[in-house]
Amino acid sequence: MRSIRPGLTRFALLAFVLALAGAGTGTANDQTRGQLSGGIRYATPDWFKQSFLEIADDADEAGAAGKHVILFFHLEECPYCDRMLEESFRPEPKARYIQQHFDAISINVRGAREVAFNDEITVSEKQLAEILEVRATPAILFLNADNRKVARVDGYRAPARFREVLDYVASGAYENASLADYLDARLDKSVYRLRDNDLFAEERDLSAVDGPLMVVFEDGSCYDCAEFHDGVLADPRVRAEIAPYTVVRVDAASDEPIVGVDGTATTPRKLARQYDMIYRPGVLLFDDGALIARSDSLIYPFHFKETLRYVAGGFYRDMDQRGYSRQRREELLEAGVDVDLGPPKLPNGD
Q1: What is the per-residue pLDDT across 89-119, written as a single tens digit (0 to 9) for each?
Q2: In this structure, are 201 and 95 located in the same domain?
Q3: Rounded mean pLDDT, 202-223
Q4: Four-residue CA torsion sign, 329, 332, 337, 343
Q5: Residue-by-residue DSSP string for 106-135
Q6: Domain carrying residue 271
Q7: What are 259's strand-pairing partners?
Q8: What's the alpha-carbon Rg for the chain, to the nearest Å?
Q9: Contact (Cβ atoms closer than 8 angstroms) between residue 162 and residue 88
Q10: What is the pLDDT of residues 247-265, one digit of tens each?
Q11: Which of 88, 165, 333, 337 has the most crowded CB, counting CB atoms within 10 A?
Q12: What is the pTM of this model?
């Protein structure tokens, strides 16, 4: 197997962010230029707090009311943000539960509003997103009354999984347990049965793999694994870019002995903890023994296939993923190739 260089990136939405950033660029050959699609216009719920963006004050006010603060980092036309808002923030009784336990504040990762995050940091929304290394939207930061981060999730989460995150924070469980431990104890382990895929190799010594390596983490609590198999891994664009990889799927709940990329004895459960993988399906991409990219949130086919290309093609050696994504998007559009950033096409038509 190959492994990957330093410079980890949560790639679920980085390509999407960069694609939208340049979506309006025109050329003399606009009639043959590819079309960019898949973005969704949305608005955050009107019950989100109309904050002056003095976050310490917001945290103090929330604490006085027995609540926590949610900072909802989002991007305009982000399909993942729209999906999560529609599934977890708008429906009742979910919306009512969030309002009872949290003050939710929206932060636009491209926004120019000034945010006083704490006594040391007063910057624009965009700069704050950069300081906090927001690479996937939505990024959801939970703060206690002392304006201290108590939990964070990057990218989309299925409603049942996100509800457990909300409960973790609202109950104060973060005082005694990590989010990974809490989820492991609470999540329903019977929502998914691990299934075979012709892409998966029967390899238990990850250090023995030659070439690019993809490690996929699944377990019985995976609400999004069926979509990953049927919509992402089955997509012809993804299949073309995944060809150079050895793809190893591990059951993150298993204590079966395996050998890690570094040659040490471990188990899938320990490996998931080692890399802080709290989403299923989670994906790690290695090249030359180093971890280059990771996905621990829902990811759609275009973003996934371009990250596969970025790693296996060795582009990470000469440019960061931000530069690659910008250049690659423009290459495709200029070549007349349509770029669809939206969700996968599933067999049942969803």
Answers
A1: 999 999 999 999 999 999 999 999 999 999 9
A2: no
A3: 96
A4: negative
A5: EEETT---EEE-SSS-EEEHHHHHHHTT--
A6: 14-23+194-340
A7: 205, 265
A8: 20
A9: yes
A10: 999 999 999 999 999 999 9
A11: 88
A12: 0.85
